[in-house]
Write a structure and sequence with these properties.
Layout: H1 8-22, E1 30-40, H2 55-63, E2 68-73, E3 76-82, E4 85-89, E5 95-98, H3 105-122, E6 127-130, H4 149-158, H5 165-171, E7 175-179, H6 184-204, E8 210-211, E9 214-215, H7 221-227, E10 234-235, H8 247-255, E11 260-264, E12 267-272, H9 276-279, E13 298-299, E14 301-303, E15 307-309, H10 319-331, H11 334-344, H12 349-360, H13 366-382, H14 385-388, H15 392-400, H16 404-414, H17 416-423
Parallel strand pairs: 10-13
Antiparallel strand pairs: 1-5, 1-6, 1-7, 2-3, 3-4, 4-5, 7-15, 8-9, 11-12, 14-15
C-alpha cells in the first residue's frame, strides 16, 4: 500500500487534525522523563554501552527480569517497556526512565523509585545512577555513540550545525514533564505561559556543575549547550509570544526546518539540510510516519499529543520530583495559569530571548530572580501540603545557594564523598 502525497496545505491540515484528536477533556496527568548517567561510584566516570557492566549488560539483565524489549538493533537492546513505563538510552548512554502518566506527585515518586530499585538490582555494586546535567568526569569523545541508526544520522547532520551539538547528544541529561491540553485554546494558553516562564524554569533547575571533565565557569551550562545546538530547531520557537500560536502555526514551524531524517513508506531516509516542506514534493508518507516529524525538533516547549516542557536539567532525588510539582502547580491550577498568562501578554519573543542570552552569560537580572521566587511561592501556596513539600527544598536552594550548580560545585570542592552521595539517586530506605 502506497503512502500519501502531501503539499504544504494538506500537511498542515493533517497535523492540525492530529493535534485536535488529543485536545479532549482528559485527566490532568503528568508524564515524566528522567535522564540519568550510569557512573562508577568511586571515580564518577561514565560507562560505555559496550564495556563490561555497561548499559548493554544492564538492559539485557532487565529484559530477563520482566522488562519487554521494545527496541533492538543488530542484537543490541536500546529500549524496554513494562506497565506503561519505558527505559531507553540516549546517544551517549544516558539512561532515560519514562513513566506512565500519573496525576499525583506521590504516585510519580512511588513508580520512579520502584524502577530505580529494579536498576540497582542488576547493575554492579560499584555503580550508581546519577542525577546531574552533564557527565561529571568523562568526556564525550571517550564514549561510543549508541548503536542506533537514527542517532548515527543525527550525529552526521549535527557536525556542521552548532558548536555544542555533539555535547548535547552524548553529554547532557534532563528532566522533562509532559502536560495535557483539552482544546486548542487551552494549548495556546499553556504554550504561551510555558515559553514565557522557560528562562525562569531553566534557571531554577540548573544543575550542570561540570563540562568535559572540568568545573563549569558560571551557571546554566546546559542552556548554553542548547543555544549552540542548531538554534533553528532549539530553544524558543519564533512567534511563541508575538502571535496567537496554535496548531497550524506549529505545523508550519515544522515545515520550515530540515527534519534530518524521515520515515517514508517504511524506509528511514537521511534528508540532511532539505526542509520538510521541500521533501513533500518527492516523498510519500503513511499517516503514522507524520508523528515522527514532531520528535525531530528540540525547542524548550514542544508539541506532540501533549505539551513537553524540556528546560530542567537532570537533578538528584527528590529535587527532580520538585520539577513535577512546579509544573503541576502552574499548569493544572486555573488561577496560576491565568495569572502568568496575563503577565505574558505584555511581553514578546524578544524578552524571552534576552533572558536566555543573560542565562548564557550567567546573568540573572532582578526581574528574573523575582519571577523565580514568585513562581515557587505561588506553587507552594497552591499545592496540597504533601505535594508542596517537594517544592520547599527548591526554594531553600535558591535562597541559600542561588542555584543547584552553585550548591553542587560547593559540595564537590568541600567534600567529594558528600558530592557523590548528593548526585546518587538513592534507593528508598538506603
Amino acid at each position: 500500500m502506497k503512502g500519501n502525497h502531501y503539499n504544504k496545505e494538506s500537511y498542515i491540515e493533517k497535523q492540525v487534525a492530529f493535534f485536535r484528536k488529543y485536545a479532549v477533556n482528559r485527566p490532568k496527568l503528568l508524564g515524566m522523563e528522567f535522564e540519568h548517567f550510569l557512573l562508577d561510584s568511586d571515580t564518577l566516570r561514565s560507562y560505555d554501552y559496550f564495556e563490561k557492566n555497561g548499559q548493554r549488560e544492564m538492559m539485557e539483565a532487565l529484559s530477563r527480569n520482566g522488562w519487554e524489549i521494545m527496541l533492538q538493533e543488530e542484537g543490541n537492546i536500546l529500549g524496554l517497556k513494562k506497565n506503561g513505563s519505558t527505559i531507553t538510552l540516549e546517544p551517549g548512554g544516558q539512561v532515560e526512565i519514562s513513566l506512565s502518566p500519573f496525576e499525583s506527585i506521590v504516585e510519580i515518586d512511588r513508580a520512579y523509585m520502584a524502577i530505580i530499585k529494579e536498576i540497582y538490582d542488576v547493575i554492579a555494586p560499584n555503580q550508581m545512577i546519577a542525577g546531574i546535567g552533564y557527565h561529571p568526569v568523562t568526556k564525550i569523545d571517550d564514549l561510543s555513540l549508541l548503536p542506533k541508526k537514527r542517532y548515527g544520522m543525527m550525529y552526521d547532520y549535527f557536525r556542521n550545525n552548532g558548536a555544542y551539538c555533539h555535547n548535547m547528544m552524548k553529554g547532557t541529561a534532563a528532566t522533562q514533564v509532559s502536560i495535557d491540553f483539552d482544546s486548542e485554546t487551552d494549548f495556546i494558553k499553556k504554550f504561551r505561559v510555558a515559553n514565557y516562564l522557560s528562562p525562569a524554569i531553566a534557571s531554577l533547575f540548573d544543575a550542570t556543575p561540570f563540562f568535559e571533565g572540568f568545573l563549569t565557569e558560571g551557571n546554566n551550562m546546559r542552556s548554553r549547550i542548547w543555544a549552540e545546538t542548531d538554534l533553528k530547531r532549539s530553544k524558543l520557537i519564533p512567534g511563541s509570544l508575538t502571535m496567537q500560536f496554535g496548531f497550524a502555526e506549529y505545523a508550519n514551524y515544522l515545515l520550515k526546518l530540515p527534519p534530518i531524517l524521515l520515515y517514508t513508506e517504511g524506509q528511514l531516509v537521511f534528508s540532511e539540510n532539505e526542509t520538510l516542506e521541500a521533501t513533500l514534493s518527492h516523498y510519500n508518507f503513511y499517516d503514522e510516519e507524520l508523528e515522527h516529524h514532531l520528535s525531530m525538533v528540540f525547542p524548550d516547549v514542544r508539541l506532540k499529543q501533549f505539551i513537553e516542557i524540556r528546560m530542567p536539567d537532570s537533578l538528584p532525588y527528590p529535587y527532580n520530583l520538585g520539577v513535577a510539582a512546579l509544573i503541576k502547580g502552574i499548569f493544572y491550577n486555573s488561577r496560576l495559569l491565568e495569572k502568568y498568562y496575563e503577565q505574558s501578554l505584555s511581553l514578546d519573543d524578544a524578552w524571552v530571548e534576552q533572558q536566555n542570552n543573560n542565562l548564557r552569560m550567567s546573568l540573572i537580572d532582578e526581574e528574573l530572580h523575582a519571577l523565580k521566587l514568585e513562581i515557587l511561592q505561588d506553587v507552594i501556596l497552591e499545592l496540597s501540603e504533601v505535594e508542596s513539600a517537594y517544592m520547599k527544598p527548591i526554594l531553600e536552594v535558591l535562597e541559600k545557594e542561588g542555584s543547584f550548580t552553585a550548591l553542587m560545585q560547593k559540595t564537590y570542592l568541600d567534600d567529594k564523598d558528600a558530592f557523590k552521595q548528593m548526585i546518587k539517586i538513592q534507593e528508598v530506605g538506603k
